[in-house]
Amino acid sequence: MDSLRDPVVRDLAWVIGSPGLLDETWTAYAGRVVDDAWCRTQLNTSAQWLAELDNEPRNLHGFIAQRPTRRLGQYFESLIAFWLAHIPNTQIIATNLQVQNAQRTLGEYDFLFRDADGNICHWETAVKFYLQAEPLLEQRSFIGLAVRDRLDIKLDRVFQHQLQLGHTPAGRAALPTGIVLQKTQAFIKGYLFYPATQAGKYSIPVTPIPGVSDNHLSGWWIRHPVGSLPQTTPDSYWTILPRLRFLAPVRLDAEASVMERAEICAALDTHFAVSDESVQVIELQREMDNSWREATRGFVMCSKWPGINT
Length: 310
Fold this sequence. Notes:
The chain is α/β, with parallel strands linked by helices. The chain has one domain. The protein has helices at 7-17, 36-45, 47-55, 58-65, 72-86, 151-160, 169-174, 261-272, and strands at 91-100, 105-114, 120-132, 142-144, 183-195, 217-223, 237-241, 251-252, 279-286, 292-301. Strands 1, 2, 3, 4, 5, 6, 7, 8, 9 and 10 form a ten-stranded mixed sheet that branches. Helix 1 (7-17) packs across helix 5 (72-86). The radius of gyration is 20 Å and the shape is globular.
């Protein structure tokens, strides 16, 4: 990851090798989560391919451009599709295959593919960003930027509904002729964000959250107006991320435009004067080559959150 510079290639590497949100050893999820060890192996195996893409990313950029979207989940799925299409001896059978009965659509298979071992696989995929809204180490304490989205509700739907489609008559009928599912798994990545104080302090709980990986990616969140943003060093700088850049850790060239603390606070004041939409900010630090690397990331939420949809 550190050697890659193209943002889309970095996102692709993040999709392949970043830690998942779920604890693959938790009893309720056992055997039904794409495990981190497999992902790390895939990232290592893909190192040369990713380096070549970084030098010439035209094919990847073209693939993404054919699927224009403003939704991060759809961008995430496009990166998965590109990756699966380039894994040796792996064949994509269908993507976003709908399951219907006579009355309505029951769901869809996100990805159906034959893996390198010949198994017919069904993946349900998602990239999620949840904020701890209550001081409880439970899945229900984590809610999305739009407050109707909650971690426990999302995972219940994934494991009790979406991953069960292949066991229903309608789900089996929707499969292409001759296809019998052998592996059905969730591929869920993202970040959990923990509350920071107005003094800019935050901490990640040591006690595990049931069903959540101990290795999950994390950040902080705070409501506007901010007294002080969390930062790891006094000389940190800042940038604001657009939604489609939420995946891989940020790396910027030395000459990139970045903000000091007073500038980022002024930019947040300007934003929240006219909008309640959340803002993701990145703390940046200089590297030896003068490039900028991400140190921490967090969300600044409107003063009323989670009392309104954002």
